[in-house]
Each structure stands twice: as structure tokens, then as C-alpha cells.
Amino acid sequence: MAWPSLALVVLLAVSIFVTDASDPDILTDFIVPPGTSTSLLDGAFFTYTGLNSSNAADPAKFTATKATVVEFPALLGQSVSYAALVFGAGTLNPPHIHPRASELLYVVQGPLMVGLVDEAAGKVYTQTLQTGDMFVFPKGMVHFQYNAGTELARAFSTFGGASPGTVSLPGAIFESGIDDNVLEKSFHVDQATVETLKHDLAPAAPGPTVPVAPPPSTAAPGLSTRSAALAVLVGFGAAFWL
Which of 90, 63, 86 minimizes the C-alpha distance to 225? Predict the structure, then answer.
């Protein structure tokens, strides 16, 4: 069967990034940065104002604004963090895992499709969430979100850890240095397809944009080359465990 080799590639790629770290059991009510006196603290230390629930700068993209211990140091040891997710029409948060925390997602503007991969049972659980719905993603399990509609979708996610971590499977597989021959044989594709996926997933180079005529596309209307490639990976994720 083909799927064991594919599972091996995914697990090897993810294992590069996954650690056993978790929030420490602290002996005080909260932790302050080294060298900071608690007598000098005020309400600002426990306040975070950087969470952004809009993507006005580019409404056609998926954006995630995080409030983890990196952005909000007061969360250290509190076993909680947050993220605001905004999905432009036709965009997705590609298959990924959070190695150190579970995730509880709450949709504030739907609909929004979500998927959870249960590799132990060989199943993919999908659900189209409406405004006000919630969905839980257990720690370490592959999942994704996809806005298949024509309007903006928004959601907030709470994590059971101050540093949940995020491992994107497309990036872990195609941008981690796995040999092209391994990818070709695992996914039953040729080298040109592997190189195309690597190119589409690579960060855009800085510099001025030169207008060019768009190449003919067979992707669904409203999907860019990048999002189409990621949509293929979502489909792969579903087919992989079915």
C-alpha cells in the first residue's frame, strides 16, 4: 500500500519540529521578566493590545495574529494563549499541528470549513461551522481550516498552552530539505511537480512587483496558484487517511 510510505514522510518531517516541551508548573501566581521588580508592575503588564481581527491590508489573504508568550510575556506559566484568524474568500490555513497544546476554535463570522485528521482511526472529520459554532483540535493532531465561501470569515482560537507551536505540513514536507527523490516516490509525482510545489510555497522575494500576464490556469475561480497548491495538499490530507 502507498499510504504507509506517505505517513512515514509526514511523520519524519513533523518530528523535526516537535518537542516535548510544555508550560512549566510555576510556584508563583505569575512570572515577571528577569530583572523586573513586582513592585513596579501595573495593569499594563497584564494587558495585550496587539490582537488584530481584521485583514484590511489584504482582504484576499489568510492572516493569523497571535497572542502567545512571545508577544505577551505575562502568559508565561499560565497555560493559555490566543489567536485571531481572518480568512479571505477562498483562502485556507493549511494542514498543520500544534505540538504543545490543544486548540478551541470559535467562529465569529462564518461559514468556515474545518478538518481534523485522526491517523489512528484512518479518518478525516470535517465540519462546516456557522457563526457561533466551536470546534476542538486535540494537541498534536493534524487539522486545517478553509473558507470555501465568497465572503470574509473570522474566528478566534484559544490554546491550552502559552507556547503551542505551529508546524505547517506543506512547509515541513517541501521546505525542510527532504530529498526530492523521497518526495517523488512518496507522492507518486515527477520532479517538475515537486519543484513547482517548492516554488509556490517559498516566501516571496522582496522588491518591486513587475506586472506580468497571468498564465492560463485550470484552478477553480478565485484560487491563486499558491492557494490552489495548498488546496491540493488539503485534498491529499483527506485522501491520505481515508
Answer: 90
